[in-house]
Design a protein that fits this description.
Number of helices of chain A: 1
Radius of gyration of chain B: 20 Å
Radius of gyration of chain A: 22 Å
Distance between the termini of chain A: 22 Å
Structural class of chain B: mainly alpha
Order of helices and strands of chain B: EEEHHHHHH
Helix content of chain A: under 10%
Oligomer: heterodimer
Strand content of chain B: under 5%
Largest interface: A-B, 41 and 44 residues
Structural class of chain A: mainly beta
Amino acid sequence: MFFVKVLEHRIHLHPSFFGAQASDYILDQLYRDREGSNTGTMMIVAIIDVDDISEPKIVPGSGYAEYDVSYRAIVWRPFRGEVVDGLVSSVVNNGFFVDVGGLSVFVSKAMIPPQLKYTVEGATPSFTDGVDQTVERGSQVRLRIKGIRGEMGQMFAIGSIREDYLGPLLQ
Amino acid sequence: MAGPTVPQSLSRRRPAPTGDEEATAVLKLGDMTDTPALSVAECKVLLEQLANKGGRGTSNSDVYTKTREYVDMFARFKDPKTVTQVDAISSGLLAKGLTHFERAQLATLCCDSPDEARTLVPSLETKLSDEELQDVLNDISKLRDFS
């Protein structure tokens, strides 16, 4: 789920940058540090604007100036139990991987309805019931996120399509 | 082993563990509660505006590129004017007790029936009557872009 969140970040500026353009350097640093980062629970997609840059405080002992920057950003955060749409990136015999933005969700065989069976046609593996529902690389799928694990910089998730209204989307 | 135990009041309180957020029949959104949420189409419009504004609009990071591709593909409403209309329709719901999260989910998933909406967003269970929900869903589907 995408949110517009107000976040805070602490930036240290080297004394060589003190000058008229200090605020530009701070913004550059902010964008470089936070845009596109993955904190393990959420991803900061884009910074919208900066609300406030605090007065600088010199760090005792090192000479760097410390700024607290408050900014608004579009963040993406998955929740357990949330229903999302995604694109299937690969199919293996015990499930398939779905890309939901920057997150890769694994749907295991146990979370796939029994009618969808693993079949390999030519070189394309897929889960299909032979009639109208097929899950293969490039299909769009609606799934429910069942569990999320986060570490610094990465998120892993598992999902299920074994419920009403979930599964491959008609295109 | 058997050392002196620190009484509760003298040890620093640990921050609350953030492992129990969920969006099932009960919404426990942690620090995202009350944060405005965006549906996929709204996010697409916003990202496009930020990119067009120039300056530092776009980034080359993996997360940004993948997210832009994702919203381009899955946005149900392509035109910014339509997105504003959908926003107006679904914002009426906020006054009826829905949270930001539920409103954005309804605008993203574009369900056909109240039953589907309640199944996909379980926390909606008791918040809206069937007719109110069906009305909102009809209004939203009328604006859908099938191209």
